[in-house]
Amino acid sequence: MNTDPIADYLTRIRNAVAAKHRMVEIPASNLKKNMTKILFEKGYILNYKFEDDDVQGTIKIALKYHPVTKMPAINKLQRVSTPGLRKYVGADELPRVMNGLGIAVLSTSHGVITDKEAKKMNVGGEVICYVS
User: Can you give 67-102 as a three-state secondary structure string?
Assistant: First the structure.
């Protein structure tokens, strides 16, 4: 039993980037699928594929690296809100990651969105993680 599946998701990506893997497989959930879509839209991963088998399904993520320097697109993944200590922010106190260069992923009443989208919609929510 995994007590924090989002931390596991972030750790699997972080470890795959550190080991310079091209692909990583992660057990799927709706929250993880939405987070994967955000990472793809913001250019942190190359591609993704959702595979549904009988029980849970998996997410296959193709990691993105610079073609010449081989540096990963994801430098830092940091879990913010944990099951033991939830971190909620209002619309007026949304975090800025790396002075606007990174993104914060939030779970709001409008779904899983980035900090910039939450600022446009003027909504707050639970800060899931920081990506830079």
Answer: CCCCCECCCCEEECCCCCCCCEECHHHCCCCHHHCC
Q: Are 16 and 24 in contact (CB under 8 A)?
A: yes
Please list, in sequence order, all residues whose beta carbon lies within 8 angstroms of the beta carbon of residue 18, skipping any fewer than 6 positions away. none
How far CA 25 is from CA of 54, 77, 94, 101, 108, in Å, comes to: 17, 17, 31, 27, 26
Q: What is the mean pLDDT of the chain?
A: 95
State the distance between the two ends of the chain, measured CA to CA, in whole angstroms: 29
* Cα distance between residue 72 and residue 107, in whole Å: 26
Confidence tier at 53 by pLDDT (50, 70, 90): confident
Q: List the structure tokens of 77.
A: 């993944």
Q: With contact defined as beta carbons under 8 Å apart, do 98 and 82 qualify? A: no
The answer, yes or no, to whether residue 112 has pLDDT greater than 80, is yes
What pLDDT, on the 0 to 100 scale, is given for residue 1? Answer: 63
Interior/surface letters 103-116, b for 16+ CB within 10 angstroms, e for the rest: bbbbbeeeebbbbe
Q: Residue 28's CB: how many other CB atoms inside 10 A?
A: 21
